[in-house]
Amino acid sequence: MVFVRSIGSVRSLRRFSSSGPLIQTGDVLRENRVFSDEDVRAYSKVSHDTNPLHFDSEHARALGFEDRLVHGMLVASLFPRIISSNFPGAVYVSQSLQFKLPVYVGEEITGEVQATNIRKLRDKSFVKLATKCFKKGELLVIDGEALAILPSLARE
User: Fold this and answer.
1) By C-alpha distance, which of 83, 80, 130, 133 is closest to 110?
2) Engineered SS bond to 93: which of 69, 106, 111, 147, CB 3.0-4.6 Å?
3) Where is each MaoC-like domain found (predicted)?
């Protein structure tokens, strides 16, 4: 996992160590993933979302898409994955999402969370996060905002 800290107009990359620096406003965490046919089938089984857009290429093309779509909520699952893998014990409080572009099976997606506000209350930290997913580097496919309670601001 790569951590990016914006410093003025220059972006610097650094990796967290196991003792981890504290997350600060502006810090970004990213993770890449390719969603496979197997991922789509497993998600459909658990969610009971059997929309033919996810399984039938001809049906998807008839509706104006290039091919079968990955479930939007499956793509959005990158956000809690990024948060919980960096801050074990984090509590995901809320998430808003706007689906901007379709994601097709086999496309590489970059999930990104950026700390936009951090508030300490007693022994907990409430962190507001901008949440975004991109394909082909720069094409925004999901835009949103999340709130998480972190047991510590240090990444593990």
Assistant:
1) 133
2) 147
3) 31-128
**What is the amino acid identity at position 105?**
V
In a domain, 156, yes or no: no
In a domain, 30, yes or no: yes
The model's pLDDT over 49-104, given as tens digits with 9 standing for 90+, comes to 999 999 999 999 999 999 999 999 999 999 999 999 999 999 999 999 999 999 99
Provide the CATH number for the domain around residue 88: 3.10.129.10
Cα distance between residue 74 and residue 77, in whole Å: 5
Q: Is the pTM of this model over 0.90?
A: no
